[in-house]
Amino acid sequence: MWVSAPVCVIIPLSFRRIRSLYSTMFRTLAPAILAALLAACAGAPPEREASAPEPPPPAAQAEPAERSFPDESLYPLLVAEFALRRQAYDVALDQYMSQAPLLRDPGVSAHTTHLAQFMQREAEALRAVQLWVQLEPDNVEANNTLATLLVRQGRSVEAVPHLALVARHAKQANFPMLLSDFADMPPAQQAELQAAIEQLALEFPDDPALLLTRALILAETEQFDQALELLDALYEQEPFQQQALLLEARILLRQGARDPFRRVERALAADPGDTRLRLQYGRLLTSTDMAAAREQFEILSAQSPEDEDLLMSLALINREIGDNARAETYLRQLLELGQRQDEAHYFLGRIAEEAGDPDTAVSQYMQVGESREFASASNRIGQILIGAGKIDESRQWFARQRDTYPRQREQLYGIEAELLREAGALAASMAVLNAAIAELPDSAPLRYARSMLSEQQDDLALMESDLRAIIARDPENATALNALGYSLANRTDRYSEAYELIARALALSPDEPAILDSMGWVLYRKGRYDEALDYLTRAYAAFPDPEVAAHLGEVLWVSGKTGAASTVWQGALRKDPDHEVLVSTLKRLGITSLNGEPLEFGH
Questions:
Q1: Could you give the dihedral angle defined by the CA atoms of residues 16, 18, 21 and 25, in that order, rounded to the nearest 10 degrees?
Q2: Of 54, 245, 312, 567, most Cβ neighbours within 10 A?
Q3: Is the pLDDT of residue 498 over 50?
């Protein structure tokens, strides 16, 4: 396999000309600088799945001939080195970035590149390494670094010649990284990159990394048989190359092969301790055979019994299979280890709730802290308490949560109000929102929630007031513009005003189905039926929702296209026979049958 990022190597500078002052100072500082930067390299983020072992460092080169640096560079370089010692890395990098193009010394450029990489300042690293490559065009590390940074910026085609140089020096070039965003490239860029890679194949026909890269492109374009042929050629050199094994398995799965994992299983039989391959194999199995996936994750967990990710994976797999007892065992192991506590409590709550034990469920949910599961746990608690008629208890709990987690106040107000609205407690929901907005008057989500509730309660003045407050603070809020425009078109005769609001929303989000529907509806209300049909048809094609169907069907019906209207309505009724807008539309138009069939509304 092949590296996906340059080796992070910090090389002390050497300025012979200023031995008496600078070299003495640098010898004093260099060990501390080197230790700090190497420690940072050691803690760098792990490489991506597509990456591979790093190539050996470049062969030792003869120390470059002594050269002179201008005296005016002495002070900036001293500032940079003292800044490094103080860990003022921004200051050091700024000095090196200004001096590197003046000195045009490969060592300075390399040092600047390494420092910029350490600081994760990729723009500066790119400029520094481009100069380094100019000064040392055959330096393998410089070219590999430049290729990596170009790929990260979406400039894969420009990276190709630099990776080719790495390969020419008999190093393992990470050609697959060229495809990091291949699926998102414009077709012309894809074609250009593919042509460049095929040109490389003429020079390196047997390079394993290039064989894999070409196979990945063929798989992306669904030329599966040709991709498998290239993988077979790769296996002759590296029989158990992991990326190739996994790519082959995915292709065979797509082709419906009887045994898509046979080569992966042979590789694991040859090396049972290959945890990385086994993990990928287990993940692939989750899409086809959960029981087999569980077996692989159990093997991994036995090898690393305190690995929190494996324990959580096993818990979720067992829940998917329906074995909540085993899922609970793994979740409690996580709690005992003190790992992923919030997730563990949340899923233990789900298990208890599904088992008909709401008290235990609430107890587990209440132990979920400020985490990714916080909102979901709060929602479940509210549903359980409100569903049991314990509205006061629910209100008290949400109030305590807002005091305990002040950063979540807005979200907690919104969750509580929505749960009360869904339960039909509209007055209680409005009281929550009024209190919330009194405390957080600039909250667009809370004002939007109150505007929708106000519209539901026919308080159009409050609805409009809240939506206009949102728009006043954020004139490009397409959601608020659309909501106000649609409500005015649907509930008043202020059609011109509604049209202007919806047009503004549509200009901001021209393909949003809800806004297309609103535009179609206001045009219908203005009597512009043909234009309305265009917008409503586009909205329904993108989002075949019963409310959009109600609007489209009504415009078709009044336009004399009753057959088409009936077809649209019948399809929507099959999806949701109780949809309020759809049913009310049919009743308002006095329609009792569609295409000769009597209507049977849901109960």
A1: -40
A2: 245
A3: yes
